[in-house]
Design brief:
mainly alpha, 72 residues
Length: 72
Amino acid sequence: MTTFARMKLQKYILIEIVMIAVAIGGLLWLTNKDYFLTLGIVILLVVVEHVLVTFIEKKQEEREEAENETAH
């Protein structure tokens, strides 16, 4: 049985896969089909995304903790 939330999540995953495929296709075109350069750029993008997400999550946790402390 598939719930609405699971279907919505699958839709976003599919959209993300399509966006990544388009980005990789564009990088291949820009780098004249240099697969190693494209792979390096994609790896850098994934690492930068991970660092940014971690940073944003830490900031949100700190903000929530500060709000909780002021509420008590």
